[in-house]
Each structure stands twice: as structure tokens, then as C-alpha cells.
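INTERNAL TRANSFER SHEET
From: sequence group
To: structure group
Subject: non-specific serine/threonine protein kinase

Please process the attached sequence and return the structure record in the designated field. Keep the field labels unchanged so the import script can parse them.
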Amino acid sequence: MVKFALRRAGNPAGRSFKLVVCLSKKNLGIEVQSGVVIAVKKLKPILGVQERQFKNEVNHLERVNHQNIVKLIGYCDETKERPVYDDYRKKYVVAEVQEKLLCYEYLSNGSLDNILRDECGRLDWQKRYKIITGICQGLCYLHEGLENNPIVHMDLKPSNILLDANMVPKIADFGLSRLFSEEQTRTYTMNVMGSM
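Return from structure group:
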């Protein structure tokens, strides 16, 4: 059993949770004390980039509320001291280790990428239409539904589209996303060259 302090968005009081099942190397299936299953994304410690991506994703997901955007349940941002073996000194030293976890609603059907690869025959045209319509509605909300502060995902791909038990698509993984003011959006679109 793995236990961490879980800080809910906007609530500094922590909650502990335990490991239920490992979904992948980056994601864990976790059961919170209340019995609710959530998905946990553990970020690798990469200097600078991780901190920026973590803050980006938390800030963006805290303010979005749409049926086609994955819901942030909470997060963990802690620094703990742990013994680490130092090969140079040939002894254990105490090092600060950062734990950065993002806790999301658990989406039982996994990613669109996995479904397209593993079970192509499972998606009839009605399901495909429902999925693409949901993705478009989620993107429309990110681009136009956030009052002068649109979010541009910048890494939309089948592995970043998750599906719930009813095959409702939800856009996930906002680590590379950018927040644009209305002026930046106008400037950006005016400088685009070329045609499609």
C-alpha cells in the first residue's frame, strides 16, 4: 500500500489514499478513503519543465468545467526527505524528493488510442460520431467558453482523449497547453501564413 497526502484543489487539508491497480508507468488507479476510484498521474522529476507543466495543468483544470474535459479531483505537491545512495561518496545521504501527482476522475475505457489499436471493430459509426462530436465540443469550450482566456491544448492526440464507461470522450493532459488573452489570440491569428 502506497500512501501520500492528497491536497484537494482549493483545500489545503490532505486526504490519504491507497494504490489499487497500476494502470501504466505514469498513471495509477487509486482508491481514496471514501471508496471512490481516481486516476493518478505521477510526473517525472525534470528540472524546470516539470514545475511549469504541473502548475499549468492544475491552474487550467481548476477553472474548466465541461463534460468533455477530464475532471481534476485533487493534486499532491510535496517535498520529502529520503535516503538515497550516493555512488560517488559510497554511502547513503538524505535527499529532497519531490512528489508531484495529479488526481483525476477515473475513466474506465482508457484512451482512444488504445481502443483504436486494440479493438477497432468495437467502434461502430454511431460511437465514432459520438466521440468526435464530444472532442469538438470540448475543444470549442476550451477555445471559446472561458471568457477572454482561451486554452490551446497543443498536444491533442488519441492518447490524450480518455473515454468513460459510456464512451463519452474527455480531453486530458494539459501539460503543454497555453493560456491566451483575447489580444494574443488576435495577434497570433493575424500572423498565420499559408493555406489549407
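Handover comment: The chain has four helices and ten strands. The chain has one domain: 5-190.
Transfer complete.
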